[in-house]
């Protein structure tokens, strides 16, 4: 995933639950359908919360990777 693949990048490293998913929700709200958001988070619960948020809100989780202790998500607004 390259910088050109995303419209917005969120660095949520160091934030604890529920802040990563709340900030992800807030960042997605103004985006147009099809826009892509890259999220980086260190909170262990983010690997559960962010995919669940996507499913519930109708967004697509395009990828979920791990880079050491950082979870990296690529989301597409539905």
UniProtKB/TrEMBL annotation:
Lineage start: Bacteria, Pseudomonadati, Pseudomonadota, Alphaproteobacteria, Hyphomicrobiales
The keyword Cytoplasm appears for this protein: no
Name of the featured protein: Sulfurtransferase TusA family protein
Family in the record: Belongs to the sulfur carrier protein TusA family.
GO terms of molecular function: transferase activity
A Pfam family reported for this protein in Swiss-Prot or TrEMBL: TusA
Domain of life: Bacteria
Domain UPF0033: 10-34
Species annotation: Stappia taiwanensis
InterPro entries xrefs: TusA-like (IPR001455), TusA-like_sf (IPR036868)
Keywords for the protein's UniProt record, in alphabetical order: Transferase
Gene3D superfamilies, sorted: TusA-like domain (3.30.110.40)
């Amino acid at each position: 995933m390259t910088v050109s693949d995303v419209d917005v990048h969120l660095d949520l490293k160091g934030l604890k639950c529920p802040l990563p998913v709340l900030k992800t929700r807030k960042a997605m709200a103004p985006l147009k359908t099809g826009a892509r958001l890259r999220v980086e988070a260190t909170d262990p619960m983010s690997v559960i919360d962010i995919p669940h948020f996507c499913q519930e809100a109708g967004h697509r989780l395009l990828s979920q990777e791990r880079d050491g202790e950082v979870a990296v998500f690529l989301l597409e607004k539905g």
